[in-house]
Amino acid sequence: MTTDMMSTGFHAVENAEIKYGDNVVVIGIGPVGLMAVAGAALAGAGRLFAVGTRPNCVELAKEYGATDIISYKEGDIVEQILEKNKGQVDKVIIAGGKADSLTQALALTRPNGIISNVYFLDPSETISFPAMAWGLGMSNIFLRCGFCSGGARRIERLVRLIQADRVHPGKLLNYKFEGFEKIEDAFKLMDEKPKDLIKPYVII
User: Fold this and answer.
1) Domain boundaries, given as residue ranges, for the chain
2) Beta strands per DSSP E along 95-135
3) Quick check: 61 and 89 in contact, CB under 8 A?
4) Range 5-145 has CATH code 3.40.30.10
5) Do 23 and 46 form a contact (C-beta atoms < 8 A)?
6) What is the pLDDT of residues 119-169, one digit of tens each?
7) What is the rounded distance in angstroms from the CA atom of residue 139 to the CA atom of residue 49?
8) Which residues contact 164 (CB under 8 A, 6 or more apart)?
9) Tens digit of pLDDT for each residue in 43-62?
10) Distance CA 196, CA 160 (A)
């Protein structure tokens, strides 16, 4: 967990440079997004908006520190957040969605804010957005993306957070398989993505 979902979610928080009192949006609350919520809360986020609809993920997002849950089923997420926040937020983390998530993030981020992306797009998608959404190129909104760093020292620090009872990534694991021969079943489950899936695990 520390080398994958937790490290990636926390990397998104690091790239966003979240500071005490920053209002933050996390788009997508799958395993990585949930860890981004937990990391943003630990970093001192003020109002923390989590965008997602799966009931078990919503409950975990609240437990990890989200102050507001935003559902795309209830209307445009940008309009909902701007209304609740009374304006744009300081930082946006993209951990899910589609190519238009960047357009949404640009609309949500204040000038001099930061967008941090840790979401793999489908190669068939094309990113485009109105020039006005980026302040005609002069908004000073920073976009950061890329793989998280690794190394024993980083993982040791993440493990310390778990040992100190500050974060609980094990709660992401909600499908249990037993036996080496069940690995293929676990991968099939990840591909099928049932609505209640967060993350499967295999005990060998």
Assistant:
1) 5-145, 171-204
2) 109-117
3) no
4) no
5) yes
6) 998 889 888 888 988 888 899 999 999 898 889 999 999 999 999 999 999
7) 22
8) none
9) 999 999 999 999 999 999 99
10) 29
